[in-house]
Amino acid sequence: MSTYQAPLADMRFALFDVLGADRRFEQLGFTEATRDVLDAVLEEGARFTETVLAPLNAIGDRDGCTLDRATGAVTTPPGFREAYAQYVEGGWSGLTSPPEFGGQGLPHAAGIALKEMIDAANLAWGNFPLLSHGATEALLHHGEDWQRDVFLKPLIDGRWTGTMCLTEPHCGTDLGLLRTRAEPGEDGSYSITGTKIFITAGEHDMTENIIHLVLARLPDAPAGSKGISLFVVPKVRVGRDGSTGERNGVRCGSLEHKMGIHGSATCVMNFDGAQGWLVGQPHRGLAAMFTMMNTARLAVGLQGLGLSDRAYQNALRYSRERLQMRSLSGAKYPDKPADPIIVHPDVRRMLLTCKALIEGSRVMGYHAALLVDIAHASPDAGERAQADALLGFMTPIAKACLTEWGVECTYHALQCYGGHGYIAEHGVEQLARDARITTLYEGTTGIQALDLLGRKVMQQQGEGLKVMLGLIEQLCSEQATNDAVAPYIPMLREKASQWQQLTREIGRRAAANADEIGAAAYDYLMYSGYVTLGYWWLRSVAASEASTHNDAFKVAKRETARFYFERVLPRTLVHASAIESGAAPLMTLEADAFDN
Amino acid sequence: MSTYQAPLADMRFALFDVLGADRRFEQLGFTEATRDVLDAVLEEGARFTETVLAPLNAIGDRDGCTLDRATGAVTTPPGFREAYAQYVEGGWSGLTSPPEFGGQGLPHAAGIALKEMIDAANLAWGNFPLLSHGATEALLHHGEDWQRDVFLKPLIDGRWTGTMCLTEPHCGTDLGLLRTRAEPGEDGSYSITGTKIFITAGEHDMTENIIHLVLARLPDAPAGSKGISLFVVPKVRVGRDGSTGERNGVRCGSLEHKMGIHGSATCVMNFDGAQGWLVGQPHRGLAAMFTMMNTARLAVGLQGLGLSDRAYQNALRYSRERLQMRSLSGAKYPDKPADPIIVHPDVRRMLLTCKALIEGSRVMGYHAALLVDIAHASPDAGERAQADALLGFMTPIAKACLTEWGVECTYHALQCYGGHGYIAEHGVEQLARDARITTLYEGTTGIQALDLLGRKVMQQQGEGLKVMLGLIEQLCSEQATNDAVAPYIPMLREKASQWQQLTREIGRRAAANADEIGAAAYDYLMYSGYVTLGYWWLRSVAASEASTHNDAFKVAKRETARFYFERVLPRTLVHASAIESGAAPLMTLEADAFDN
Prior knowledge:
Two copies of one chain form a homodimer.
Chain A: H1 8-18, H2 21-27, H3 35-53, H4 57-63, E1 66-68, E2 73-75, H5 80-89, H6 112-142, H7 145-157, E3 160-165, E4 181-184, E5 190-200, E6 209-216, E7 229-234, E8 236-238, E9 244-247, E10 250-255, E11 266-279, H8 285-321, H9 345-377, H10 381-416, H11 428-435, H12 445-459, H13 463-478, H14 489-512, H15 515-546, H16 551-568, H17 572-581, H18 584-587
Parallel strand pairs in A: 3-6
Antiparallel strand pairs in A: 1-2, 4-5, 5-11, 6-7, 7-11, 8-9, 10-11
């Protein structure tokens, strides 16, 4: 069994010491988000996730969800339903939602550590409440008044959950191909018909109603992505007065058998003349959906981080307990039959890689959440715009990198266990299987890379990149005389400068051949992730040195930063080399020659 | 469902065009191994694995093996037993075994493509016959005459299977800690008592007897790895005359629940006063076991290759069929609703990475198998010694790299499927789970790295490295005027030269601090793998150009080599950088500070 202990000390360090979130919240007018309240959220969140959710993780994996084909009802794994009731009762559901609809109105960044804890404790369970936030956002920003009045309160207090119904069997990334139809009725509602797949929490036994946000085509819709509208389709019909009525024409047709996240219900949803209501403008559904997707993408990035951390914690414990071989430089524990494997440099290489990626990612991910708050709530329009640009730039980086690193860290953690890592009872193989979904859903890594390079950099003239480069230069200037930071400043500056050069070079090439974007995108994204993490590592060391933490804490931050700069950041060499090689090595071979 | 088609054309290319295996077999005196016979083995092997084994792969994953706790009997998945009977009937079992014990006496390299096909078609099934080879080797080289007479024929003709019983709950890598006891009896046999874990094919329903090769301690054994002896312990007792008697005191106590290879029986084996016979000298069991392990390590490397290839084949088909988005450089199939995803550069990046790693690995792996034959059968003692040194050097490289690339290629293949890759019915997620064992068993990647750098390079003065460097320089000289090869020669020479420098530098540092070996080992191993693969890619292009293959074949080899040199070989930059950073960034942080 793998265990989980919320890393509260490092969470506080990231939020308060590095990001100064408590001071920012005050400036942004979140008067409720005092340090006391934030600490209480962290401590109670740790208690809930460690004692309620974490013990259900292996059970969810083993038992999964089950579908009653006769009724279309889905039963969640033992304990999931009760844990959800505790979640609602504890008021976790509306933590960062608007008070006018029953939420607690805390800033987004105040909920981000809780999100990480939930993901680490029980990713599959976390997917049930997760999508409610997307549905809430869509209705909040695009719904009519009556829709907000009727749907938001129960979504925010957790009585109901939400879904995002995008994918169809023949279209995932390419939503322009979707076929689900919406026929207008006489009462202003629409009749929705079609099949949606990969619907997370599409059906379950935790709440009395489920609110589906569904993309579909109106009869007069133009072809392609400009003919897609958004509808709200409740499982149980809801009147304009909020009264619930009969069962709607939507039903779970089957559950997918997946590599992991067995406890999460991944549903095929059949809409058969289901009553739905248009949300926002006709044919503008994709734009509304994208509003939801940005938050969802950050949320999936956090999933990668949470899994990495849980895997690391367990691998670390195992590496301290497992006695095997002597250190090559002489026995370190001569009184034991062998040394614990953490004495071996290669085990340390794997553990330190995890530690450096995790702690750096935590600051990166939490910072992105803070940008959401700044972009929404800053009184300064210029600051709002800058935060928005940086957030748009960082979202694909955080989503893709934190999930790719989630795959990598769970790989290293499993490897530390040797053959035992492959055995279910140790629990680390579940984390590796669960992590594997995160680079796929809410847009694969390749899609994030195109979003970053094609849209955020090339189409938007690199607004976010400029902000990030400015932050890097500011840090390098400010910290030039800080002995703990200064040794790494030349390398960070060099990488930042190469980042600009690579961006310009891709732009030049792309003017002649648009495939240069696609050919560079993945490596550009990873390059960006590593440079950004280098920035956050130096910010972390600077914050640690300036803090009241003890020496052991400061040494650990310094040594992990050193490892990052000497052993991880050089990965940029390969990504830069790949970008420089251009599109030709990828595009020359004919598609029918790949099996020659 | 994933499908499998044996890549016969590329297998033939590797064996005959690049390695000239048919001519080498003739020189080595394998008169039976004519091109006709070798072609028949390939074609019949393809038929057997494609039609018999491949369709059972998903069934094995779904149903797994089951244990009857009352009797200790293990039932294999539906169809496995019948497939094994066909395997025996087809004469596959003894393909490369000595004729004096009923084998067909073909060279080791003549069976290597069959090995790849079996692994690709059904890795879990392949683990049942696999370990018979190790047991055969151990008895052949270390057994007494009566042991060879009694055990070898049924192991070679497949009537019985074998196992290797090394690991115990508290010791895997560190066999010096093992506790299983062997008490001498009056009849010259020994009574074996202890618990072994992770015993592949330890119990099953395919054969009437199972021959366990077991490491245990004699009563007078010195502590540590110099007090371990090897015993042969049949499931059903066997007399010195070959007669089988009653059930021996060995029994499967439980089956492990694993991340993958569900169809493979991974057993806890309880030896409770089981009758066994000493194989070889007392206290010299570890050396005898290592004989078996080298072949087993190459075999596991081939597993990585087989899984990579199957995953690639399926991802390639999916990427040609799945229509999603338009090419950024303009619609490539305007008559279809969208372009197949293989038009997208990032999908091509993933596919070409697989193709370059797979085809290069095939030559590397087959060459190692050929070295086994040369080391055993060359009439020239100098050539035998050289082949042996190169084989010892290449074994950890091939084992670790082909399995790490197996994890990587199954990752890329799954990623090509997007969210569908995560769903069991497509079959690619099984390949990813199955691949995950290969970097663990028969020695983790970290252990291979220590074997390479610590033993093969540092202790043995780099004998094998010198041979490999000689081959590289010879190729570069010979191909200097070959237009298809020449552009890559400077890069290969530069990497080979850096390889030598890095080796010297590590040696210099290790003289002062033995942890420098462990700190460099993983990156040294991967560096070695990429340079070696570069060599095999240039050999492949040279062989292709000189062959009678059609232009499409030659273009594909040239383009894949180009991709390898421009997009994969630069990974050496990171590994070199890591080696140069030395041990300090790994070793400074105290073990108790990893969770600070």
